């Protein structure tokens, strides 16, 4: 069994996927938790608890998505646009700061 030196490009692609899975997956999961908590027709505490529990599923799916695509660029494209769209939806749904209880 011969040992081959892994190229720097390959190592950087793996590192990029790990960062996309860890940081990007966390961002996507956080944004999704907020959106689901805002949309669930439950009392606020129960909606937050339910969406937080679903967060484990969202994070797992994000990590699987990052490592199932062919390139690191596609991994970032699987994470960044949905995160931005969900964050914009959260910003739109959140009540304006300082307006009532």
Tell me what you see in this structure:
With 101 residues, the chain is an all-alpha fold. The chain has one domain. Helix content is 78%, strand content 0%. It has 3 helices and no strands. The radius of gyration is 18 Å and the shape is elongated.
Q: Total number of β-strand segments?
A: 0
Give average pLDDT, whole number.
Answer: 89
Instruction: Bin the strand percentage.
Output: under 5%
What's the order of the H and E elements? HHH
Characteristic key phrases:
3 helices; 0% strand; Iron uptake protein; elongated
Draw up the topology in text.
Elements: H1 8-39, H2 44-68, H3 72-93
Helix pairs in contact: 1-2, 1-3, 2-3
Produce a short descriptive summary.
This protein has helices spanning 8-39, 44-68, 72-93. With 101 residues, the chain is mainly alpha-helical.
């Amino acid at each position: 069994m011969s040992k081959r030196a892994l190229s720097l490009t390959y190592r950087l692609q793996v590192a990029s996927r790990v960062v996309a899975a860890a940081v990007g997956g966390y961002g996507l999961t956080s944004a999704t938790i907020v959106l689901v908590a805002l949309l669930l027709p439950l009392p606020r505490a129960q909606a937050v608890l339910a969406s937080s529990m679903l967060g484990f599923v969202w994070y797992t799916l994000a990590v699987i998505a990052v490592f199932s695509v062919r390139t690191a660029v596609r991994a970032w494209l699987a994470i960044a646009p949905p995160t931005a769209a969900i964050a914009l939806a959260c910003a739109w749904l959140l009540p304006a700061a300082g307006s009532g209880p």
